[in-house]
TrEMBL record:
Record's protein name: HAD-superfamily subfamily IIA hydrolase like protein
UniProt keyword annotations, A-Z: Hydrolase
One Gene Ontology CC term in the entry: cytoplasm
Organism of derivation: Psychromonas ingrahamii (strain DSM 17664 / CCUG 51855 / 37)
Keyword Ion transport: no
InterPro entries (UniProt xref): HAD-like_sf, HAD-SF_hydro_IIA, HAD-SF_hydro_IIA_hyp3, HAD_sf
Example GO molecular function: phosphatase activity
Length: 274
């Protein structure tokens, strides 16, 4: 792993940049100024830029969020989300055996994902599986009873966003759907994961950008961004100012943290910048 100052140090080594969204471009609020400059720098050098996001929403939703944050649509090719990965699997028939009745965990009252996947929201006693797309109830304790009942009924769980936590605009962390899925898996329940680090989403990403010869993934999650890049056999740039920032103090702490997650980033830097 090599510590770099910014993209200028590696700009000639790669033709495709696969960017995480949260923690790299923004934390749910306005885009980081350095990130906008970095995107402009990549555009000036005619690089392919695609955003690969562990978000249960669609790419169209991400386009709007990015625009609202200050990132122009002209600065990247497209967005691919874990939510689209999941929708693809439902619509291709991969989960046909699970049935159509979903115990639905969401962020808010938006149930469009049910319509997108041809599903019906059901109570725990009538559900044929769990669809985990959000944690509007709060922390994990608010889901424990449902998870126990679901496990007793041998229900499988499909999660649209595998992230355990994400950063808020103020730098604090919030729980994400992956935490519920992980808890269910630790109970012994069957979980169907989507997004990073699953190999399928990197294949989808490769097709989306028309293929790549020299690609690098940029992200702040060792468990998702860097592990996913390692699994896809592409280079990676670890952003240390993201969700692991409180665990990092020097280069040795970065190495130790990478060893804990059994990953090997190619490079690391503090912020996504040119």
């Amino acid at each position: 792993m090599k510590i770099i100052n910014g993209l200028k140090d590696i700009i000639n080594d790669f033709d495709t940049f696969i960017l995480d969204q949260w923690g790299v471009l923004h934390n749910g609020g306005e885009a980081f100024p350095e990130a906008i400059q970095a995107l402009q720098f990549l555009k000036e050098h005619n690089k392919k830029v695609v955003i690969l996001s562990n978000s249960g929403n669609t790419g169209k939703f991400s386009h709007t969020r990015l625009q609202d944050s200050g990132i122009s649509r002209a600065l990247y090719l497209d967005v691919l989300t874990s939510g689209e990965h999941m929708r693809h699997n439902f619509n291709s028939g991969k989960f046909k055996a699970l049935g159509k009745n979903a115990l639905f965990f969401s962020w808010d009252e938006d149930a469009s994902v049910l319509e997108d996947c041809g599903l019906t929201e059901s109570a725990i006693q009538d559900a044929s599986f769990i669809l985990c797309c959000g944690v509007a109830r709060g922390d994990l304790s608010h889901y424990t009873n449902d998870l126990k009942l679901a496990y007793q009924r041998n229900l499988e769980l499909v999660v649209s966003n595998p992230d355990l936590v994400a950063m808020n605009p103020d730098g604090s962390l919030k729980i994400c759907p992956g935490s519920i899925a992980k808890a269910y898996q630790e109970m012994g329940g069957i979980v169907h994961w989507h997004g990073k680090p699953q190999s399928d989403i990197y294949k989808m990403c490769n097709e989306l950008v028309g293929g790549w010869d020299r690609a690098i993934a940029v992200g702040d999650s060792l468990e998702h961004d860097i592990a996913g890049a390692n699994g896809a056999s592409i280079s990676s740039l670890f952003i240390t100012s993201g969700i692991h920032s409180t665990e990092i103090s020097d280069q040795k702490s970065i190495v130790n943290l990478c060893n804990t997650f059994s990953v090997k980033p190619s490079y690391c830097t503090d912020w996504f910048k040119d």
